[in-house]
Amino acid sequence: xxxxxxxxxxxxxxxxxxxxxxxxxxxxxxxxxxxxxxxxxxxxxxxxxxxxxxxxxxxxxxxxxxxxxxxxxxxxxxxxxxxxxxxxxxxxxxxxxxxxxxxxxxxxxxxxxxxxxxxxxxxxxxxxxxxxxxxxxxxxxxxxxxxxxxxxxxxxxxxxxxxxxxxxxxxxxxxxxxxxxxxxxxxxxxxxxxxxxxxxxxxxxxxxxxxxxxxxxxxxxxxxxxxxxxxxxxxxxxxxxxxxxxxxxxxxxxxxxxxxxxxxxxxxxxxxxxxxxxxxxxxxxxxxxxxxxxxxxxxxxxxxxxxxxxxxxxxxxxxxxxxxxxxxxxxxxxxxxxxxxxxxxxxxxxxxxxxxxxxx
Length: 360
Hints:
Elements: H1 2-34, H2 40-55, H3 69-80, H4 88-95, H5 97-101, E1 107-108, E2 115-117, E3 156-159, H6 187-202, E4 206-208, H7 221-236, E5 241-248, E6 259-262, E7 265-268, E8 270-275, H8 281-298, E9 303-311, E10 326-333, H9 338-357
Parallel strand pairs: 3-4, 3-5, 5-10, 8-9
Antiparallel strand pairs: 1-2, 6-7, 8-10
Organism: Clostridium estertheticum
InterPro entries: Spore_II_P (IPR010897)
Protein name: Stage II sporulation protein P
């Protein structure tokens, strides 16, 4: 009875062994066709060895120096699924059918000695969006705005009620001179820049009156400039723009400078001044608002943060009661340099040209 049981048990073990070898043989036929060929010398061997040692107790194969057979089984299963963990591109091609369709090469040597073929990624120059410096904005000149210059019909009048309002000669100038009769160092210099730009770049005829209105009597400045303004209005009728060009004033002890940086250069900020009680205020405010919009669109930060200074009456309404198009513009203050405010004159020319020659 005991011997028969032992014989039956031995027969069962032999039968189980035979079935196991048949199973392994079938695996040998199927797995190599699906697994990556570069992995078969290493991954498949350990898969078979582990399968045999776990199934048939008679075989107890040594590890041959490999420390983690479990990881090899995982590796072989992934290979069976067509995924090579040493090559991330193979994973991407599984997820993105387009890449597999276009035969992206994923042939990577398993030993890490060489990458046989990986399609390089190339960027064409015009496909790259290059960020600009934060102070680089719209072009200074808009050639589309140029018209034929007609000197017989001036469209812009620039004058200065406080003609001798001056600027620093340079950053090193510590003289704190607030007024200067030299036209190259006071508000007249800014008016010259605007005049030249409007006429040469945009075909807009300009009268730039440099009459000194604040000397000898500073308090009579607006009265004197009003007389000159009436003279021009009588001769030419109205203008498209009448600009009383000033600078802001700060105490000589102050270090406040109204400047910003545009297109890589220091530029003085500017603002508009209006009088709310003058009978032409509504139309003047509409005109000013339009130019504020142009300035903020083309040259952000060029305007003083206040943008518009509102006075109720001013002195004689700052002569704004004489025309719907009469404005007062302040460029920088007495701490700005002459180069900074002349730069502003260039940008103001573009703003005025957009207002006068641009599409309405």
